[in-house]
Amino acid sequence: MKTKQLLILLGILVVLVVIVGLVENPFAKSEYAKKMEAATPLFPDFNKEDVVKIEITASGETTTLANENEQWLVASMDNYPADAEGVADVLDKVGELKSTGLVSSNPEKQAEFEVDSSGAEAKLLGAGGNVLAHLFLGKTTPGYLSSYVRAADSNDVYVGKGNLKATFDKGTRTWKDRTIFSFNKGDVTHLTIRSEEEETELEMDAENKWQMTKPEPFPAIQTELDSLLDSLSSLDTDDFAEANELSEYELDDPKSSVLAKLNDGSTRFLLIGKEESGKHYVKRDDKDPVFMLFQYKINQLLKKSEDLKDDTPVAEDETPESEESESGDGE
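The structure assignment produced for this chain is given below.
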């Protein structure tokens, strides 16, 4: 009797598994995956390696990026070095765009999706000026995870992943490379921090510990130095200053600076000028551009000597009196 009941239950279980498999089909591809496989690239012949120039028009202004000697420059801004990661992101995004999520083919609705002159327009050009891709990047979809996009020679509006307009249109942040310093903090062996109040010098000792040598010899708080070097070694600007005389920014004879000496003999020297509207004017000693940093970033660099001193009491190795007397008796 029990065997018969077990067989019945086993049969019911098999039937349920078959039903679930037919309904859910967990091994089948999702509809989205099927669409992605069937979709064709928006620009079938596009090869990012062939791109030598990018023209981006947004808010009535055109920014031109040009690849010269394997370096991307902002040609429309005196050939200033461009944001290399940003350029790579643009090239990848265009190559990944596919004809999925068609939302409209009506030219009268282009303004609604901002895939006309109200959005961002991009032309990616090859050698000789041939157009490799020409597209319009519109607003984000209601979920903000995707954006509307349209090839310039088509009325079809598709959906692409991410905030595509922001990828192409940097706005007031511009396409300039925002890097001030980028080096390995572990290569620093000496630091000089100069402010209006004092000058502090620190150096790495033989045990790879930071020691203060000026204004007075003192062990340094290692975590404070590590935090300072984190900031200095990967320092990006918050803004770019207009080209003016250095005296306008008090950078001709700055009262504050941070100097780092590296183990290869090179230096990284940041000059810090006056403050204006919550930002300080700064520049490298070996470069012309003047940058601007928020006050909190300056505070991360201009550490006071008192804040760098490690005045933690050193535990003494005390010998109990009983042991001392026994030691004396033995002698």
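Interim note for the steering committee: The first strand starts at residue 53 and ends at 58. The two ends are 94 Å apart (CA to CA).
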